[in-house]
Structures are given as C-alpha cells and as structure tokens.
Amino acid sequence: MTTTASTSAQGAIGRSPVTPRSGVAAVLHDSWVVAKRNLRRMTRIPEIVVFGLMQPVMFVLLFSYVMGGAIQIPGTTASSDAYTQFLMAGIFAQTVTFAVAGASAGIAEDMTKGLVDRFRALPMARAAVLTGRTFADLVQTAFTLVVLALVALLVGWRIHEGVLSALGAFALLLLLGYAFSWIGALIGLSVRSPEAATSAGLIWLFPLTFISNAFVPISSMPGWLQPIAYWNPFSATVQACRNLFGNQVGPVDPAWPMQHAVVVSIGWSIVITAVFSWLSVRKYRRAAG
Amino acid sequence: MAPAIQAENLVKTFGDVRALDGVSLDVPEGTVLGLLGPNGAGKTTTVRVLTTLLQPDSGSAQVAGVDVLKHPNKVRSLIGLSGQFAAVDEYLTGRENLQMVGELYQMSSRDAKARALELLEWFNLADAADRTAKTYSGGMRRRLDLAAALVVRPPVMFMDEPTTGLDPRNRLALWEVIESLVEQGTTLLLTTQYLEEADRLAHDIAVVDHGKVIARGTADELKAQIGGERIEVVVHRPDLVAEALAALTPYAKGDPAVEKNTRRITVPISGGAKVLADVIRELDARSIEIDDIGLRRPTLDDVFLSLTGHATAAEDENGEDGSAERKGRRAKGKDA
Predict the structure, then answer these.
(1) Domains, chain B, ranges and CATH?
(2) A150 occurs within a structural domain
(3) How many whole angstroms separate alpha carbon B302 and alpha carbon A87?
(4) Would you say A63 and A87 are in contact if contact means Cβ atoms under 8 Å apart?
(5) In sequence order, which residues have a C-beta less than 8 Å from that of residue A21 and are 6 or more positions away?
(6) What is the predicted ipTM?
(7) Residue B93 — φ and ψ, nearest 5°?
(8) 10 Å Cβ neighbour count for B311?
(9) Is A261 left (phi over 0), alpha (psi -120 to 50) or beta?
(10) What's the predicted TM-score (pTM) here?
(11) What is the mean pLDDT of residues B192-219?
C-alpha cells in the first residue's frame, strides 16, 4: 500500500471537487445511483427476493386449495375455482404491501452500519437515499408480481377484461406498493435496528390486509367493522383490480369507495406517498446520531 | 493563513448530557490535529458537527473557509470522512463501492470508474476489487473505507478513530498512508484514543474531556507542561504494591499512579539517575522484590492522566463504543 502512495494520490482524475448538480437533476441522478446500489444488493442476496416470493405463493396455494372449498362468495356456489378468482386480487395487493418490510429493514440496516452517515456526508441530494431505496423496492415488487401472476395462472386464475385492463390493475398495485414502501422508509428511519424494523414493518399489515375485502366479502363482517374495511386503502385497490381483471363475481358492493374503487385507490396511493415521503425525508434530514 | 478547520464554542446536548460543552479549535492548512480523549469525551460528536452530520445547539464552524451550518452541501464536496465503523456496503464489491461514492460526489461515471481503479491499486485492493466487501478482512475494509473518503482528493479530511480495532501491522500501514496524504498537503482532523497514534501523526494535539478542550499543544509541549521524569517500578507480587508505594513516596514530586493489575507504580521525580539509584537501594533495603524498574520521560499517557485524572484508551477498549457517544451516554472515567 505504501510503495505507490506518493505517486498515485497525485493522479489527474477528479482533481477539483465538482460542482453539485442542482434541483431535480440532482435528485434523479443521485436516486438512480442509490437505486443501482440497492438493486445490486438484491442480486447478491437472492434469499431476500426468494423468500419475498415464497410467502405470497404459499398464500395462493393455501387459500385456494385449503380454504377455497369452504368460503362461499355471494353470487357463487362454494368452489375452490370461484374463490381463486376472488382471492387473487387480494393476494396481489397483500404482496405489494410487503414492500414495507423490505424498505424498513433495508434503511434500518443502513442506519446501523454507518452507511447513512457516509451518504449524509456526501454532496448528494438529501432525498436520494430514500427515493433510490423505494425505487429499487418497486422493481423488486414488480418482479414478484410477475412470478406470482404466473403461479396464479397455474392454479386456474384468469383475466377476463383484456391485457390492457390487467396492466392497469398491475399499475395500481405497483402504485400502492410504492406508497407503502414510503411507510416502510419512515419505520426504518424510526426504529434503527433491522430486526425491529422487520417486525414493526410487518405486524400492522395483517390487520390492514385482513380487515378488507381481500379474503372475505366485507358484507360478512360485523357492522361496526364494515366502514373501516370499506375505507381501507387496501380494499379500494383490491376492488379496482377485481374490476380490471374481470374477477368480480356478482354486483360490486354498493359502498361508495367500492363503487369508485379505481379513483379511491389512486387517491390513497398518492396521499400516502405524499405524506410519508415528506415525513421520511424530514426525518432523514434530522437523523442525528 | 486562514485555518482549514475552525470551530468556535460548539455546544451540543443530548437530553441532559452535554456532549459538547464549548469546543473551540482550529487546524491550520496542511497540518494534522489529533483530538485525543477517552470514549464519550466528545470527539466523535465534534467530528459529526464539523462534517455536517449533526447540528450543534450553538456555536459556529468553518471548513475550508465555508460555513458548516450555512452551506453544508458545499462543505460536503470539500471533505472526506472515514469513520470508526467502516462504512462500506458489504454486498457491493470494492470497485462498486468506490464508484458509487464517486458518482455521489457528482463525478461523471467515467471519472468515478477511473478514480476507483486508481484507489484500489493504491490501497492494494486491486486483486479484491471485484469481490464483495463482505469477504474482506477488517484491515481491507478499513482501507476501502479510507479510499472512499479520498475519492475526490478532499483538501480536508476527518478520520474518526481510523485504526481502532486494527492489528499492529495494519495500523502501521494505515499510518503510512495517512502520513503520505498529509505530505501532499491534506489538512487532517483525527480522533484517537491511542496516544501513540497522536504522538506519531499529529502536529498538534487537543485533549478533550467531558465535551471540552482541556489542553492544546504539540506532543512535546504537552509533555513539558507536566514536566519531569518518572520512575516506573513493577513489583513482583500484588501485595508488595502498598509497601513499594510507601518507599517511593518520599521521592515523589507529584501524585504517583498505580496500576494494580500490572503491579506498576509510576512516580514523578526530579534528580534523574541518582534518585533512581537511591530508590533501588531503598527497595532493596525493604526487601521488596521487583520485576522491572526504570527512568523515563513522560508519555502522552502521563499527560492525559495528569490532565483528566483518569487514563485513556487501554482499559476502556472492550467497553463502550462510539454508538454510546452518539446516544449521549458518557463512559465513566475509570480512575487508575
């Protein structure tokens, strides 16, 4: 290390500090650099991606084969095929919300390992560490959805409204996943231990995804729970996907958010993204050791 | 010439702990200031303020003439930071780590690539360039971390305990790198718990304790400040320590220091070799068996001890780490 020291430190490259890019260009450039880093990590730790896939695949198999025969969807006879059609939008939506866990654990890990300090001492866009992270999570979510859709097709799920509608549904799902990864970012910045971040990221997803129309019709829930389930951002996305996939059996629930599911879904995703990205970036700036 | 690093009256409290209690310092361009102190003294907090990672409650600071609080992003493009815990992404290769940092310093991706290669060669990491940092040894990671701090050849460098936890060979190698950087004109602020490190690398030393700079000067000045020579005695059995201390006390020109576990007594004296001979005769007369005795000039350890009333690194090493400092806890000074 010492033999060449005196010469190579004097090389010509990057001689003078470069002027930072400004505004949007800086955010985009730096986000992309950070996203590249996170995507590379995913290829180095394929376990994360594989285990991220196993859980939803298991849900597909368990729900359609084990519970499908017992749960009757209004307007159909109890059969595992009818339930599979009903179920799939719910599983897709649940899968994208698990992006929360990835973002929260990843960011908490960067905080504890000192990487966030490295980033914060660099002349880079402040938000980029987080936007880069959530973008990488979006890519992972998209990959997971593709695999999951293939598994779903294998167990008998079908789309009935054409490819464009189906793509629209996947776009809604990705939007929801992106929104939720910002919730994960805030959790990751708040707890500061990757283990705590994983559980804090997941625990509230269960009530959120179960008090919804994902696995059972909302009309079968007790009356006091129904408004919560109807206004659950998750329910709107599930309903919108059912419509777009052509998986809706019988009339759509008359509740307002269910009747306007696409708009409500988009609205929720935008609001969640806006609020949580603002909170996260603010928290990141203040993240003093 | 204006100092490359200047801090005035920095105060930072975490809860009811005053991590920084009015730290002022300046580092002239092209020199090395060693910030010396025990864990929890405020060294890391000082570095975090100067590197824009932490907002002080009050006080002001300039780095390379730029106000740290007003223009943090400008400061960031002029500094390199190498931390206590090697902050590299262990799932990226060495090359990818350095390229990423280069790109985030706003270099073009081509320059970032070329610079990464240059640094990998300089730090003897070329063979490991395309392995993930996870497979690196501790010394290699530390080198990679330092390389990351040097990507833009920053005129001002901050190193927070650069050699903590390294074996002697790697420590020496890193010292040589640091020395070559300084030769080329880099201004460096270095925190350390190792007196030896400060003695070797720093032009100037600021001793920090309880969030304050309690002494400042060159290593020689600080040693002269507490003056005199010392007699160091290691007795053969622990139960002899008390009696040996009694024998030495008449010769002492200051408070003796006793390390019970090593059976070592250090006493400031004046009179040199003659006093040493007297002491040996005295110990012999009392039949106190000794393993070692010698006359020595004060070390920075003595300086530290006499300034703070407690010793520095060695015995704290396995205890609190930098995160304790971040959380605002304060390592208790262990009295020798």
Answers:
(1) 3-223 (3.40.50.300), 228-297 (3.30.70.100)
(2) yes
(3) 74
(4) yes
(5) A29, B106
(6) 0.84
(7) -75, 165
(8) 20
(9) alpha
(10) 0.79
(11) 88
